[in-house]
Amino acid sequence: MNKKVTFSDIAKYTNVSKMTVSRYFNDPGSLTPETKGKIEKALKELNYKSNKVAKILANGRSEFIGIIIPELFFDYYSQVLNEILTTYNDFNYKFLVFAGNHDQELEKKYIEELLAYQVEGLIILSYTLPSEVLKEYNIPIVTIEREDQYVTSINTNNYLGAQLAAEHLIQDQCDILININSFVRENVPAYDRIRGFEDTCRQNQIPCKIIQKNFKNDYDVTYELLDSVYQHLESEYSNKRKGVFLSNDNYANIFLNILIKNKKQIPEEYEIIGFDNTISKESIIPITTVAQNIQKIARSAVEELKEQIESKDSEKKSEIRHVIIDPQLIIRGTTGKNSYTAE
Amino acid sequence: MNKKVTFSDIAKYTNVSKMTVSRYFNDPGSLTPETKGKIEKALKELNYKSNKVAKILANGRSEFIGIIIPELFFDYYSQVLNEILTTYNDFNYKFLVFAGNHDQELEKKYIEELLAYQVEGLIILSYTLPSEVLKEYNIPIVTIEREDQYVTSINTNNYLGAQLAAEHLIQDQCDILININSFVRENVPAYDRIRGFEDTCRQNQIPCKIIQKNFKNDYDVTYELLDSVYQHLESEYSNKRKGVFLSNDNYANIFLNILIKNKKQIPEEYEIIGFDNTISKESIIPITTVAQNIQKIARSAVEELKEQIESKDSEKKSEIRHVIIDPQLIIRGTTGKNSYTAE
DNA sequence: TTGTACGCGTTATCAT
DNA sequence: ATGATAACGCGTACAA
């Protein structure tokens, strides 16, 4: 390892100034082929390795973007992070990633740390800090699928997703439509899954029931809660065709398992639709689900951030924007009267 | 945002030198309470924000660790990444993360980029670059669950995992033990799942069959391949009690679904054991599985890296180490004659 | 096309 | 306990 080779070393070796070496990288067109060749040779022979930290200090552009996710045990976050990381190939931003673990104080600390490293922007998937607080950091920010009143955001068109689900269940002639959800606040995007579902039922004059439970991030708790929901539905709507829309694939999968164990006919007695298109395909009956366009969400997030970062330079203050990405209904075996087979 | 507040600004404001301001952060014990107070006040009043990029350039310690994962669609990688990120709270390393997407050239490029940002070490989960190549970068490196001959690594005790699985199936009086695997090379840790399985069968004089298929990262392909395996097992071992050990939970789940659809009795006719403890719990029958101790794997990786980083300073060259973490068998509904119920 | 001088914000070193 | 000065490695601005 010894000492690092710098522009000065290359400059001495080639009898040019270090500015010329710098230009070799940043403005090669301005060099004669000769000097270019000399420098190229020297770089190889001295085994030069660039130091971007010095570059940041000199020109102020870190090309860092900070990401704060709640965690990676939930497939949705993993997939979004995966797609964000992949944008490196097109946008060249480097990503410093923190897992907030649902802890507000921790997340504040993480943001301070990210700012210290001169990140040019933040992508926030965690939800503990209100957007009003986020905006105060005065740095380009994009949030994804969370409360977003005061900041630019990318969200799925949850309303449309719920609408597609409800319409599909109605078309399949379900007698009663049920939405199973956790207690989401009205100001988060996911609440539109309830609004869209209710509105669609009302417009089609189909009975509709919203069931909200205090789901934890725990399989057994979720199982118990959904089992009680099942009992309730059985007693309440015994001889009706039930169309059930759950707020994510994990819930949908567990609910499906409960139905199967109780020997229910699917999709004859129950139709099921999940959300997120994560594990739904791997269920005992592949589950119809609303798929978010995660790649588009991720790319849009980086694009919006890039725009903010660049408009910051040119003094045009960019307005807050809320980008909405349409989801897609993926029809599988838990809906459609003739589809009780695997794909 | 205006101009950034620096140590110089604080120094002028308080009539001390910027060195004293620096000491306020790095060696506060050496300051008098008075100056400490003055500086503290100035930091608040001028709203100072630290710049760690300048700090890196000055002292050479970035506190960055680079991570290269193949992708995040596979739960195992997500969980490992999650646990690595969480070590920030104890070790204070910041993580620059790249998704290699199984592309060797891309990964080389990513490593160069990471080196340019002065990362102090690398954690490699991707497998495209041989450890012989990795070692040549001459920087602290730890690999996780991949070929590791020339570098320090953290791996699960795959041999033990397979042994636990085989012993459990034998104890449950299976007549024939089957291991379903992809074509893994003999020099990757996962190959020990085959070795451990075979050895245990041999020692117990139980018939054993290793089936390797060319699994892709695709549900439908995997389904077809496992369906053909099922057909094969049915014709070959029709009235024997079959104990099947699959190399991950996804395969185990799909195989289980195939058995259920064919109305096989589980665990009477087939016993199933998966690996990784990811989706096994959410299957129609919760699947017995070998759980890797992911938290320990992640922490060990960071600890080993830290040791390498620190011993690098003190000129003691640290030896290559291969740390082995024991997994644990989690018994659920797909094994054990009396356990055909959910947990 | 190439060079000079200086600055980026911090720490290291040697003084006092 | 505090300060002066020189790094760290690169880019900007202006000059030649």
Characterize the structure shown:
The structure is a homodimer of 343-residue chains. With 343 residues, chain A is of the alpha/beta class. Chain A folds into 3 domains: 44 residues, no CATH class; 130 residues, 3-Layer(aba) Sandwich (Rossmann fold); 135 residues, 3-Layer(aba) Sandwich (Rossmann fold), CATH 3.40.50. In chain A, 43% of the residues lie in helices and 17% in strands. Chain A has 13 helices and 12 strands. In chain A, the strands form 2 sheets. Chain A has a 6-stranded parallel β-sheet, sandwiched between helices. In chain A, helix 1 crosses helix 2. The longest helix of chain A is centred in the last third of the chain and has 20 residues. Chain A starts with 6 loop residues before the first helix and ends in a 13-residue tail after the last strand. The C terminus of chain A is likely disordered. At the A-B interface, helix 4, helix 5, strand 2, helix 7 and helix 11 of A face helix 4, helix 5, strand 2, helix 7 and helix 11 of B. The first copy, chain A, binds a DNA duplex (16 and 16 nucleotides) through helix 2 and helix 4. Chains A, B: GO terms for molecular function: DNA-binding transcription factor activity; transcription cis-regulatory region binding. Chains A, B: This is LacI family transcriptional regulator.
Counting DSSP H or I runs of 4 or more residues, the number of helices of chain A is 13
Strand order of the largest sheet of chain A: 2-1-3-4-5-11
Which ranges of chain A are low-confidence, i.e. pLDDT below 50, for 5 or more consecutive residues? 338-343
Given helix and strand content, the structural type of chain A is alpha/beta
Q: How many distinct folded domains of chain A?
A: 3
Greatest interface and its residue counts? A-B, 53 and 53 residues
Instruction: Give me the CATH superfamily of the largest domain in chain A.
Output: Response regulator
End-to-end gap of chain A: 56 Å
CATH class of the largest domain in chain A: Alpha Beta
Second CATH tier, the architecture of the largest domain in chain A: 3-Layer(aba) Sandwich
Q: What is the third-level CATH name, the topology of the largest domain in chain A?
A: Rossmann fold
Largest sheet of chain A: 6 strands, parallel
Radius of gyration of chain A: 26 Å
Beta fraction of chain A: 15-25%
The count of β-strands of chain A is 12
Quote the average pLDDT of chain A.
Answer: 94
Oligomer: homodimer
| Helix content, binned percent of chain A | 40-55%
GO molecular function (chains A, B): DNA-binding transcription factor activity; transcription cis-regulatory region binding
Coiled coil (chains A, B): 295-322
Protein name (chains A, B): LacI family transcriptional regulator
Domain HTH lacI-type (chains A, B): 5-59
